[in-house]
Amino acid sequence: MQILRCLLISLLVVGAASCTAYQKAGKSSYRVAIVQFDTIPEKNEHNTKQIERLSREAAAKGAEIILFHESAVTDLVSDIDKYSELVPEGPACRRIEAVAKELKVYIGFGISEKTRDKFYYITHVFVGPKGYFYKYRKTWIWKSSDDSGYRNEWARYDVGDGPELFNVGGLRATCFICADGDAPRCIERARLLKPDIVFYPSNHGGESYYPQYTPRAAAIGVPTLIANRTGKSWYADCKGGCAVISGTGEVLAKTATHEEEILIYDLAIKK
Q1: pTM
Q2: How far is CA 230 from the centre of its chain?
Q3: Distances in Å between the alpha carbon of 130 and those of 25, 73, 134, 159?
Q4: Edge-to-edge, what's the strand order for the sheet holding 224-227?
Q5: What are phi and psi for residue 26, nearest 5 degrees?
């Protein structure tokens, strides 16, 4: 009986410790940076350097959390195996991880991911002061009638498991990517998680998409960070369109141009 009692106490202590990972009060305000820049398709080295440079600029402005757009390292790719990288072992991940450690910030960035057993995902990677800690794999991937611009994700990529909770500096966070937000089930799953913040990276851009984003943020009921690219992808001239949207669907801040820009915002978090 004594052994059983000790075992039960141990389980309760472990359970309590795991819960506090999400129950930490954290802070009431976080300075966030949402970055739009021109990813050059299949130029992983160049794009990684841009992410490093822009992360340093954002951190110099006091940013604690820095968000880049979908597939920021790779964009869409013609040869999926050649240009995709392992996560977190790939060179881009390791370099951006080193920057996050050095600057003591959290960075979220998109990449085309491959696994050693030849699965491929559109992935958003999160690194922080202690290194790599989370990745989200796009689930409701885009289905195109053809593969022009290498855009038929349905034919080219595998799918993830949908939104889940992860911890960013004491915040209960969740993430989904671009076309994920078109799926009502994705929005519902995100809402049921009761996060403090939503990361919503995309890769098409422009303010014309705000009428889609705002009701999604309102449906979840918490602040949502929208990251979009600027410049020319394979298939479009993208117009940026980064934004911070409140839990009621109000656009709190947005990028002012179609050029490279770092949107800085002091985001209040209600606990």
Answers
A1: 0.89
A2: 17
A3: 19, 21, 12, 28
A4: 166-168, 171-175, 197-201, 224-227, 243-245, 251-254
A5: 60, -140
Q: Cβ(67)–Cβ(108) under 8 Å?
A: yes
Predicted pLDDT of residue 148: 80
| pLDDT tens figures, 91-117 | 999 999 999 999 999 999 999 999 999
C-alpha distances in Å from residue 10, one per residue of 3, 14, 19: 11, 6, 14
Helical segments of the chain, H only: 2-23, 44-60, 80-83, 91-103, 153-156, 184-192, 210-220
Tell me the C-alpha distance between 115 and 121, whole Å: 9
The answer to whether residues 164 and 190 touch, using CB atoms and an 8 Å cutoff, is no
Query: Token pair of 50, please?
Result: 């841009």
Distance, CA of 64 to CA of 154 (rounded, Å): 35
**Residue whose C-alpha is closest to residue 30's, from 243, 267, 200:** 267
Average pLDDT over residues 198-224: 93
DSSP character for 37? -
Task: Check if the beta carbon of residue 121 is closer than 8 Å to that of residue 157.
Answer: yes
Report the length, in residues, of the chain: 271
Residue pointed to by tokens 């966030």? 32
Q: How far apart are CA 196 and CA 169, in angstroms?
A: 11
